């Protein structure tokens, strides 16, 4: 207890689990999935039409794989558990895939979102996670090339624009491993019709929902993504699909300037300063939107999984 005129020392104490992260000055959410879903859920389309149907789309947006709490059961190693504790958040795909350069097969992606809003107009926003990835152990072989891509993005809207800022690890393209990072930005000259695979009057603008819209090409490039300079990285996968290793991820974005800052993947830091996402016109009813999103995509007719031990969203 202090007395009059005596200085009061303010002590801020964080949970020990935050010691494995590098948050910005204000931690908004710290989600340890041993405690539940913490607001993370499947990403579903807008069911606002007759019979609760969603918008017309070349890509089927209603059949993505489920998001669940998991002890990471493995065929030979029993339950793996999480990095610290028992449960992680598991994103999974269905066992279906088209070729890379075709629109996504229904269910060929697993995607999880947490629905947030802007808080005190930060200068920077950041997402961190410890994660692991593996295919389902349902056949012989390493299975590494069955994982096409995974990543993270922020879905944002401010007073002027809606836009998406994020990164994507392209692991495999039509069975051939590539292992390179991309960032969210639409190529010059892409039209709304290009964005929707030839469909006229598509409802999303170029730069929105890059994870499933925009043409893709056999070298792993795409209308919605650009290669990160010197972005090749051979991530730790292990020697069999029933052995997972936990990897660190950190993505930092300049919210006020709408510019990328940095990606840290395991022991590498990629300087993204000077790069920008694609800005689209504002949408109705979603002012101050700040939605973090993780996703994983399969490259073959095999279910693949992304496990999130815990995640931290912080600002300053």
Please provide a written account of the structure.
It is a single chain. With 316 residues, the chain is an all-beta fold. The protein has one domain: Jelly Rolls (Sandwich). The chain contains 1 helix and 19 strands. It has one helix spanning 192-195; strands spanning 26-32, 40-42, 67-70, 73-74, 78-79, 88-92, 109-114, 116-117, 124-135, 147-157, 161-173, 176-184, 225-232, 247-254, 259-265, 268-271, 279-281, 289-298, 304-315. Strands 2, 7, 8, 10, 11, 12, 13, 17 and 18 form a 9-stranded antiparallel sheet that branches. A hairpin with a 4-residue loop joins strand 14 and strand 15. The protein is globular. The model has no long low-confidence stretch (mean pLDDT 94).
Number of helices: 1
Structural class designation: mainly beta
Question: What's the average pLDDT?
Answer: 94
* Major sheet details: 9 strands, antiparallel
The CATH topology corresponds to Jelly Rolls
| CA distance, first residue to last residue | 31 Å
Helix content: under 10%
Order of helices and strands: EEEEEEEEEEEEHEEEEEEE
CATH class: Mainly Beta
Compute the gyration radius: what is it? Answer: 20 Å
Number of strands: 19
Task: Detail the poorly predicted runs.
Answer: none
How many domains would you count in the coordinates? 1
Estimated share of beta-strand residues: 35-45%
Q: Which outline best applies?
A: globular
**Assembly status:** single chain
Query: In the CATH classification, which architecture applies?
Result: Sandwich
Question: What's the short version?
Answer:
The protein is mainly beta and 316 residues long. The protein has one helix at residues 192-195; strands at 26-32, 40-42, 67-70, 73-74, 78-79, 88-92, 109-114, 116-117, 124-135, 147-157, 161-173, 176-184, 225-232, 247-254, 259-265, 268-271, 279-281, 289-298, 304-315. The protein has a single domain, classed as Jelly Rolls, CATH 2.60.120.
């Amino acid at each position: 207890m202090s007395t009059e005129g005596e200085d009061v020392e303010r002590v801020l104490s964080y949970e020990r689990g935050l010691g494995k992260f590098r948050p910005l000055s204000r931690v908004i959410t710290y989600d340890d999935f041993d405690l539940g879903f913490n607001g993370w859920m499947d990403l579903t389309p807008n069911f606002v039409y007759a019979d609760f149907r969603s918008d017309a789309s070349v890509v089927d947006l209603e059949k993505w794989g489920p998001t669940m709490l998991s002890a990471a059961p493995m065929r030979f190693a029993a339950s793996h558990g999480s990095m610290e504790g028992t449960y992680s958040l598991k994103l999974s795909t269905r066992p279906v895939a088209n070729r890379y350069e075709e629109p996504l097969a229904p269910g060929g992606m697993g995607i999880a979102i947490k629905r947030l809003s802007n808080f005190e107009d930060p200068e920077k926003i950041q997402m961190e996670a410890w994660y692991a990835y593996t295919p389902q152990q349902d056949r012989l072989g390493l299975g590494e090339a069955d994982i096409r891509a995974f990543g993270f993005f922020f879905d944002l809207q401010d007073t002027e624009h809606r836009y998406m800022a994020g990164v994507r690890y392209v692991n495999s393209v039509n069975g051939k491993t590539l292992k390179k990072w991309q960032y969210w930005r639409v190529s010059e000259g892409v039209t709304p019709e290009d964005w929707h695979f030839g469909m006229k009057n598509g409802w999303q603008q170029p730069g929105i929902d890059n994870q499933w819209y925009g043409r893709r090409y056999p070298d792993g490039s795409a209308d919605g993504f650009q290669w990160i300079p010197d972005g090749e990285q051979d991530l730790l996968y292990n020697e069999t699909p029933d052995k997972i290793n936990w990897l660190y991820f950190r993505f930092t974005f300049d919210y006020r300037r709408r510019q990328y800052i940095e990606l840290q993947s395991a022991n590498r830091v990629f300087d993204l300063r000077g790069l920008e996402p694609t800005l689209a016109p504002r949408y109705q009813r979603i002012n101050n939107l700040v939605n973090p999103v993780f996703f994983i995509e399969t490259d073959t007719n095999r279910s693949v999984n992304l496990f999130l031990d815990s995640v931290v969203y912080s600002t300053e």
